[in-house]
Design brief:
The protein is α/β, with parallel strands linked by helices and 312 residues long. 49% of the residues lie in helices and 16% in strands. The chain folds into 2 domains: 216 residues, Spore Coat Polysaccharide Biosynthesis Protein SpsA, Chain A; 68 residues. It comes from Copranaerobaculum intestinale.
């Protein structure tokens, strides 16, 4: 559908996909039933993030049978942040929604989001997950502690139940697209840019098909991305601990000069302790430095290998 009716709102539904062959048909059917019952025009924009299963073939089928379906397919896996950015950049709607393909984002909320935006004039209606039913206790514990930490040290506030599932105005989307950084952390950017947001509570929904692509390792790296993207506190802590170690070292030196005990053992312990702390903070410095190098290279955030989009 290349020509839209100017009298109706256009909603673009951006869907990052990575190995979602089993879930995509169910997702498309469920969302289509909801948006067809809304007083809007709509388009799907799927972004295939280097899937190795039949995700791209499913997108071929959907785009052939439905003119509302568009897709971009990456040359490899660039990550969900890159996929979301590509979808936002390609969107044409005056409202844009980000949804996961696994149906953990309830499609029925789309109608509520749109209605709340029309009533309030806000720029964003975001889903707020009130529980984590179905997730492991370790993952729940780590998630809660992460949000406690990041809210304590970062310049923006991020809620544990807030995710990517939200309907945004064109102005808000354009503001997000104005950030060209390679190391993106959208949860932080949503808060950083401001704009009035209405929160809509919902209970956690288990995946309908397939398995989660988020391992504990990938979640840890994503959490580290968020902390280093929105806080300089780790760098400040490195400086503070460095000063403390200098003072402790000086005190220990005075103690050694005036009291007799096993000096060799003490020195070995101090070397291991201080050496370990130096390696830790060198790693922190390296993380920030690596981000600056990545930004300075100006490499593309993603590479599109295939698309069914014509020039708008």
């Amino acid at each position: 559908m290349d020509v839209f009716d100017a009298c109706k709102d256009i909603v673009t539904i951006v869907v990052p996909c990575f190995n979602e062959e089993a879930a995509l048909p169910h997702f498309y059917t469920a969302v289509s039933e909801v948006v067809q019952d809304m007083p809007i025009q709509y388009e799907f924009h799927f972004v295939n993030d280097g899937s190795t299963d039949g995700t791209l073939e499913i997108l071929h089928q959907l785009s052939n049978q439905d003119p509302h379906v568009y897709y971009d397919s990456f040359s490899r896996n660039f990550g969900k942040e890159a996929a979301m950015y590509a979808g936002l950049k390609a969107s044409r709607g005056n409202y844009v929604v980000i949804m996961d393909a696994d149906l953990q984002h309830p499609p029925k909320l789309l109608k509520t989001m749109y209605e709340r935006l029309q009533e309030s004039g806000a720029d964003c209606a975001a889903a707020h997950r009130v529980d984590r039913t179905g997730e492991g206790s370790l993952r729940n514990f780590c998630s809660r502690k992460f949000y406690q930490l990041i809210n304590a040290i970062c310049c923006v506030k991020m809620d544990d139940g807030a995710g990517d599932y939200r309907m945004m105005s064109r102005q808000m989307v354009d503001s997000l697209l104005s950030f060209h950084e390679v190391n993106r952390y959208s949860k932080g950017l949503f808060s950083y840019i401001g704009f009035q947001t209405i929160w809509i509570d919902y209970e956690n929904v288990n995946r309908q098909e397939g398995t989660s692509k988020w391992s504990m390792r990938s979640l840890f790296l994503y959490a580290l991305e968020g902390i280093t993207a929105f806080s300089n506190v780790p760098l400040l802590l490195a400086a503070v601990f460095g000063l403390i170690f200098c003072l402790v070292g000086f005190i220990i030196l005075l103690y050694i000069l005036f009291f007799r005990f096993d000096k060799v053992f003490l020195i070995i312990c101090l070397l291991f302790f201080i050496g370990g702390m130096q390696m830790l903070f060198t790693g922190i410095f390296g993380e920030y430095l690596a981000k600056n190098v990545a930004e300075a290279r100006h490499r593309p955030l993603y590479i599109i290998k295939e698309t069914n989009r014509r020039q708008y």
